[in-house]
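Quick sanity check, Class I SAM-dependent methyltransferase:
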Amino acid sequence: MNHEYYKEYYDLERNHWWFIAREKIISNYITKLLREDKQDISSIRILNIGCGPGRSSEYLSKFGNVISIEYDKFCCEFASQKTGLEIINGSITEIPFPENSFDLVCAFDVIEHVEDDQLAVTEMKRVLKDDGIIFITVPAFMSLWSHHDVINHHFRRYKLPEVKKLFLSKNDGKLIFSSYFNTFLFPPIYLFRKISNLLKTGEKRAGSGSDFEAFKPGILNNILFNIMHLETKFINKNISFPFGVSILYTWKKHK
């Protein structure tokens, strides 16, 4: 992405309803996973791949020792300066760690940026310890494709069976839980994307052109956050949604 976008995304990750709601959904589900797995968070090793401007590494740090990787060198330097985090410049398709290094490997909205997404998943599995967990999120449905995906350098959006296929290509682990999410807001977002594509509004925005620019902090931002955040209760009960704007997927490696 353009370097100015990372500066914009630094603020978005901390103020925009979608980022904050996703953070709550992810954090609450990790709490559930670790509780069920009886993990001692004082010793858990976490790899956060594609940390961007750093917010995901900040909230993951409450669960254990986080190692952060980001592909874009400028973003590494920018995020490190802003957050004080040590961020490694590296690629998900060539993770600079040996096999069996981490208890939890996370990639939140990352593999859609990678042309060889199967290699990305294989690398995540490689550095994962036996009985370790991979937790990813990805954008869903090509029917939602818009200028937002173009400027974020996405290769694709996914359907759930496509994500499952990436992980089940070898008999080396098992699915824990998978679901679409951001379901309650799917209809208005779908309509927004279709109108945006028709009118090419994304290309006319002053900033990055992402959909995130369309909603600024305020009452509407709070309403949308609360609607999306409601889904946490369902996901923590392992209730899968049949559709949504995004996908959540967790997988456990066999010994």
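Posting the structure with no commentary besides this: Residues 3-253 form a domain with the Rossmann fold fold (CATH 3.40.50.150).
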